[in-house]
Design a protein that fits this description.
With 271 residues, the chain is an alpha/beta fold. The chain has a single domain, classed as 3-Layer(aba) Sandwich (Rossmann fold), CATH 3.40.50. Strands 1, 2, 3, 4, 5, 6, 7, 8 and 9 form a nine-stranded mixed beta sheet that branches. Helix 1 packs across helix 12.
Length: 271
């Protein structure tokens, strides 16, 4: 089981979009069993993947009992530092693909820092002998902050993926994450993902090599490896967001969807 934490100290850089679309393409395109852990109190990844209320009533992993109050359940689970709890108590089927499940987030996570003390609680839960057999990939959607919940995500992850736009604030947020990772004793691979790169939307006015040069400079500036593809800007991304739809389903052949699909393939090949 591979665990990937998606984070940036800056909000609005495409973390949740990346989590949801990567999860979808890993499951639908490569037959992977995927779990999304929604660590954000806003619960946007949960809303995107579980859809309307009738979907949330579906059963969880291994024919679990019908869905209860997932927000309170997940918040309570973190508060109890994940006792010996089967995955079926928390994971819920997504509405977008049969092999895609969600550990739902929500309001119960906002005061998590007051209740959670261990930084390895999530790792112990995910790598429980029974739980780790149920999924090939775990993608963790982290809030744009650095608290004990995010430290749990880092501790549990094999790789940290940092979506980054070309804005100064986004680069600064990425640099903060990288500095924290380097300052700690974390055995984790760090990769920067250029997302919604504005230059791509002006492709008619700019040479592709200029855009590539800027993205290469980003990797050099942050001192980290880059993913082999950047997520292109597309108006479909905004349209999908306003329609509360998963981009991969709303416009599967737009540039951004195809880039996420390629990125999923890159990960599925063991990169």
């Amino acid at each position: 089981m591979r665990v990937i934490g998606i984070m940036n100290r800056k909000g609005g850089v495409g973390k949740t979009t990346t989590v949801c679309n990567l999860a979808y393409w890993l499951a639908s395109g490569h037959g992977k069993r995927v779990l999304v852990v929604d660590l954000d109190g806003q619960g946007n990844a949960t809303d995107c993947l579980t859809g309307p209320e009738h979907c949330r009533a579906e059963q969880g992993v291994g024919d679990a009992a019908p869905h209860k109050d997932t927000t309170l359940t997940l918040g309570a689970a973190y508060g109890m530092e994940f006792p010996d709890m089967p995955m079926s108590e928390l994971a819920r089927k997504s509405c977008v693909w049969p092999q895609l499940y969600v550990l739902p987030g929500g309001d119960g996570l906002f005061d998590l820092g007051d209740r959670l003390e261990r930084v390895d609680a999530l790792k112990r839960f995910l790598h429980n002998e029974e739980n780790k057999k149920q999924f090939d990939y775990v993608l963790i959607d982290c809030p744009p902050e650095f608290n004990i919940a995010v430290l749990n995500a880092i501790e549990a992850s094999d790789r940290i993926l940092i979506p980054t736009t070309d804005s100064g604030a986004s680069k600064k947020g990425a640099a903060c994450v990288i500095e924290e990772l380097r300052g700690g004793d974390y055995d984790v691979r760090v990769t920067v993902l250029p997302v919604m790169w504005p230059g791509v939307r002006r492709r008619q006015k700019r040479e592709a090599k200029d855009i590539a040069r800027e993205i290469t400079a980003l990797g050099e500036e942050l001192g980290c490896e880059l993913t082999p593809t950047a997520i292109s800007w597309t108006p479909k991304a905004g349209e999908a967001d306003r329609a509360d739809k998963l981009l991969a389903l709303f416009s599967p052949k737009c540039a951004a969807s195809m880039a996420y699909r390629w990125l999923a393939r890159w990960l599925a090949e063991g990169r």
